[in-house]
């Protein structure tokens, strides 16, 4: 059995070793590992205000998207759990965004935001006839929000699913006993239900955070990172460096920096989740 | 990082070109009658296959080329179609990994230097110099040089000329009281503004501006204005000159028209811009000359048949002579590790010939190919069917603005595009500040 | 009451964008730019075009084969590893976490070594090659998910089997695997969906209609010189049919599989 694990570790480590080596060498797409440059690339990348800004932007984006997804997801899961009428058909329909390929999600929201005749534009003109065309993806803040919205739409169902499963899996006796003691409504929920599913919510937040840090397809399809740098998220910068500029060394350094950033952001979440699980 | 990049001498455009042409001519005369590399005298390659990497815009052309080449030589062409922003990296990966599935490719000419530095494409100098059938002198000089040369060596043969010219919708202009297209970028701005103010309520705008953050798209819109204002990317000695007054004026012209363009420039890519043009929703669009062929083809959905005109790109500032701008443009290259060099040479020599270029110009459905040779530009059928486009394309004969093509050029183009996108989004300060930053980065990249 | 209202609202939020995509797929270019929301009359031309002009049917077939093949291979790799980790405390949860760590990063730079790996295997630009890459790419996630199921199996079961003299592999194949079938199906479905939706590897590791998958064909449509939004919408919908069908038929499995990883 040990060889099986060993093989997996090697295969998992192979890309990591490649990235680490590329980060300290002059590496182009065609010719990796040309010569050792030490930390020169790291210094170069850290001195690039656009890259640093994209990492900061990535953190803001991931935290924002994860928070919104978790709030909406938990609310929906609880509503599903409470709602008598919601059956498995409802649950299946709610899952659809999550299994839609990200490329299609990007196309879909690009069409929704299309300034000439898209859903948002048409709806707003219906409310305000004669208004100028609305173009969500051409203003920096709105474009950022637009990508975030598509991302929230795509992955909130995952939170719903995880939390809903935790809700139906919890110990019903505890809740019934508390209800007999006179706990009702919000108090019952906040004192009994919420603690029981807190660990799951923490884990769901963690998964959501990581998915948001990795987002690439939506940016690629919807905005190409624009307008300006507004939606240039870390994965897009890495793609640009490696596959547009052929600079694999630089891409590897940004990947490692992103790894550090993701670790720093997720560590507290991991710690909190652990504690919630143990309580 | 920068210190480890090998410095490379940029060719100087004017003088070096003349010298280069002379050298080529001399070599040609020296080798006249000598054995060309097409050792297969009967040109029969039956049963052989050639894998050709192309961007999705060239899919139509690839079908025509495959059919005709098989008829001619018996060799089967296996086209591999990829999105336009992936062709260079796909070729480099294919060669670097040793997969070596690609024999021939038609990448953006700006990536030639990087592909050569990566060892992904062959140095064709010896072959091209020794094969007078290629008829280098017939290539439009302003296209030949950037599309084939890096540091004095030949790495490609021109495939798709791809200069931009200004198309205008005659009906929209007439409705708004303009009887002639603009000659300067100021007039262009004025007309665009008028049309948008009058008709945007009906979904009609003065201009479609390619503004999506890609070197081939937003970069093209800037290059068109840079050409008009008489600027250059690099000077004669290869030093960046991207923050000259001409360049700043060009960037500012782009900023000025941004508010009056088809919403919204930041999202407008080829597809969105061209669709608006064919639907008769925009007064102006800067585009490849082949747009006209498709505009006349109701089969492919054009609603502007006989309602359009085409003219040279406007000028600006002190410059009064219109210059072509080689914005996109694609070259045939041979993959470094192909085992089929001979067949690959046969193919690209044929595909870059004036006969093939002329055929592709007028083929229906439109192939999207523009002239790159004098003979095909002056082709009779082309002149009869599309006299206006032909005239507009003649702009390339008087010299054209080309992107840098040496090592790091793709990165340089990306840097410029990113900064321009910030400028248009109001994040980059003034046009001068934006281009000062680009200049500094370019000095590193081309240092 | 409020709960039901919220459920209805979230259903609308999930479905209205998809319904709009259906609507666009039935419109002509003129109707789209005129801002129609409902196509009158519906124009099925886009669907015909998407089916006949784009090579989409082949891409759907490629996607289905690649994603299912990748999922099966992933399970073959992941089950022994998950079992060993859970049973022998090989590294425990921290090793599972370590195995999972590459998954935390965008896989873009990994394309270069993967490309080389495929060349060594002579599988460049083949559907088999892409399938192998998918199998490796998701093994970590599969181990992570499966480990939770394995730990829930009663230890006595395989201890008893081993006392009977059965070797480790025999216990795994004849005792553990049958017991874990529901979990394997669940994890398999998740991995298959992840494979089906993957874009970046697919676009760089395949070329030509023989191996290109649905997301790649869609991205090529976006790169055309004249974008036909109606056709792109129709093609997108055709492309999602297999995953939506999987969701409808396997919703229950999907739920158990996804929850196993986080709820343990």
TrEMBL record, chain B:
Signal sequence coordinates: 1-32
Highest taxon in the source lineage: Bacteria
Keywords per UniProt: Signal
InterPro entries linked: Bact_solute-bd_prot1, SBP
Name of the protein in question: Sugar ABC transporter substrate-binding protein
């Amino acid at each position: 059995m040990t060889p099986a694990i060993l093989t997996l570790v090697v295969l998992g480590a192979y890309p990591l070793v490649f990235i680490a080596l590329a980060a300290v060498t002059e590496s182009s797409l065609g010719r990796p590992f040309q010569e050792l440059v030490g930390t020169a690339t790291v210094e170069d990348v850290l001195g690039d205000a656009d890259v640093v800004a994209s990492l900061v932007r990535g953190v803001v984006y991931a935290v924002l998207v994860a928070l919104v997804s978790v709030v909406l997801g938990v609310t929906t899961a609880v509503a599903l759990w409470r709602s008598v009428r919601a059956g498995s058909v409802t649950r299946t329909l709610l899952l659809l965004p999550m299994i839609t390929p990200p490329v299609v999600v990007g196309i879909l929201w690009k069409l929704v935001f299309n300034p000439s005749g898209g859903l948002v534009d048409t709806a707003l003109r219906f409310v305000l006839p004669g208004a100028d065309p609305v173009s969500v993806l051409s203003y920096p803040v709105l474009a950022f929000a637009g990508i975030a919205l598509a991302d929230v739409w795509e992955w909130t169902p995952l939170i719903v699913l995880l939390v809903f499963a935790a809700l139906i899996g919890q110990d019903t006796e505890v809740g019934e006993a508390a209800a007999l003691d006179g706990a009702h409504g919000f108090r019952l929920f906040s004192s009994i239900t919420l603690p029981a599913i807190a660990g799951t919510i923490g884990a769901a937040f963690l998964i959501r955070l990581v998915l948001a840090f990795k987002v690439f397809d939506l940016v690629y399809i919807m905005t190409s990172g624009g307008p300006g740098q507004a939606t240039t998220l870390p994965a897009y910068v890495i793609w640009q460096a490696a596959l547009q500029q052929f600079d694999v060394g630089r891409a590897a350094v940004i990947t490692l920096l992103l790894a550090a950033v993701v670790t720093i952001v997720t560590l507290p979440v991991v710690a909190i989740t652990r504690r919630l699980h143990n309580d | 990082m920068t210190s480890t990049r090998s410095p490379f001498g940029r060719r100087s455009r004017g003088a070096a070109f003349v010298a280069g042409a002379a050298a080529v001519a001399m070599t040609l005369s020296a080798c006249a009658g000598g054995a060309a590399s097409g050792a297969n005298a009967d040109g029969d390659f039956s049963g052989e296959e050639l894998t050709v990497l192309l961007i999705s815009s060239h899919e139509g052309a690839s079908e025509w080329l495959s059919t005709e080449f098989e008829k001619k030589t018996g060799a089967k062409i296996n086209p591999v179609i990829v999105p336009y922003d992936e062709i260079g990296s796909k070729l480099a990966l294919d060669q670097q990994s040793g997969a070596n599935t690609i024999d021939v490719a038609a990448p953006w000419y700006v990536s030639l230097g990087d592909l050569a530095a990566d060892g992904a494409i062959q140095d064709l100098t010896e072959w091209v110099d020794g094969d007078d059938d290629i008829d280098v002198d017939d290539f439009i000089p302003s296209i030949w040089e950037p599309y084939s040369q890096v540091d004095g060596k030949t790495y490609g043969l021109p495939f798709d000329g791809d200069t931009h010219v200004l198309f205008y919708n005659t009906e929209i202009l007439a409705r708004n009281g303009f009887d002639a297209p603009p000659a300067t970028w100021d007039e262009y701005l004025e007309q665009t503004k008028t049309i948008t103010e009058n008709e945007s309520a009906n979904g009609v705008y003065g201009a479609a501006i390619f503004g999506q953050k890609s070197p081939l798209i937003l970069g093209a819109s800037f290059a068109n204005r840079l050409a008009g204002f008489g600027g250059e990317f690099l000077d004669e000695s290869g030093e960046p000159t991207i923050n000259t007054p001409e360049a700043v004026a060009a960037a500012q012209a782009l900023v000025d028209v941004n508010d009056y363009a088809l919403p919204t420039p930041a999202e407008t890519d080829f597809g969105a811009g061209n669709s608006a043009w064919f639907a008769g929703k925009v007064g102006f669009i800067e585009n490849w000359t082949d747009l006209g062929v498709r505009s006349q083809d109701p089969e492919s959905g054009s609603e502007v048949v006989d309602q359009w005109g085409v003219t040279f790109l406007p000028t600006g500032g002190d410059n009064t002579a219109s210059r072509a701008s080689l914005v996109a443009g694609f070259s045939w290259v041979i993959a470094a590790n192909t085992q089929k060099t001979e067949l690959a040479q046969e193919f690209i020599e044929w595909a870059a010939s004036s006969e093939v270029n002329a055929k592709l110009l007028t083929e229906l459905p439109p192939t999207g190919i523009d002239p790159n040779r004098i003979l095909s530009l002056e082709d009779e059928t082309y002149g009869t069917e599309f006299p206006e486009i032909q005239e507009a394309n003649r702009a390339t004969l008087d010299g054209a603005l080309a992107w840098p093509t040496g090592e790091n050029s793709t990165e340089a183009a990306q840097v410029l595009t990113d900064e321009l996108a910030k400028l248009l989004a109001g994040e980059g300060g003034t046009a001068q500040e934006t281009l000062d930053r680009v200049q500094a980065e370019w000095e590193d990249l081309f240092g | 009451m409020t709960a039901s209202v919220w459920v209805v609202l979230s259903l609308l939020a999930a479905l209205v964008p998809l319904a709009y995509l259906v609507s666009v797929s039935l419109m002509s270019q003129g109707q789209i730019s005129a801002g129609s929301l409902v196509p009158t009359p519906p124009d099925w031309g886009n669907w015909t075009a998407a089916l006949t002009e784009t090579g989409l049917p082949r891409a759907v077939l490629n996607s289905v084969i690649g994603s299912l093949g990748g999922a099966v291979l992933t399970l073959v790799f992941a089950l022994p590893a998950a079992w060993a980790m859970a049973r022998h405390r090989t590294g425990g949860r921290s090793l599972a976490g370590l195995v999972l760590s590459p998954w935390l990063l965008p896989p873009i730079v990994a394309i270069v070594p993967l490309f080389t790996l495929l060349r060594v295997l002579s599988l460049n630009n083949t559907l088999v090659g892409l399938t192998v890459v998918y199998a490796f790419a998701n093994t970590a996630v599969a181990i992570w998910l499966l480990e939770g199921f394995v730990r829930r199996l009663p230890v006595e079961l395989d201890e008893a089997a081993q006392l009977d003299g059965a070797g480790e592999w025999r216990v795994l194949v004849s005792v553990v695997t049958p017991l874990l079938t529901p979990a394997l199906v669940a994890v398999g479905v998740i991995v298959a969906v992840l494979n089906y939706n993957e874009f970046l590897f697919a676009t760089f590791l395949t070329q030509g209609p023989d191996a290109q998958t649905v997301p790649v064909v869609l991205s090529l449509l976006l790169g055309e010189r004249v974008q036909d939004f109606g056709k792109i919408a129709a093609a997108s919908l055709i492309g999602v049919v297999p995953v939506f069908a999987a969701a409808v038929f396997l919703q229950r499995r999907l739920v158990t599989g996804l929850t196993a990883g986080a709820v343990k």
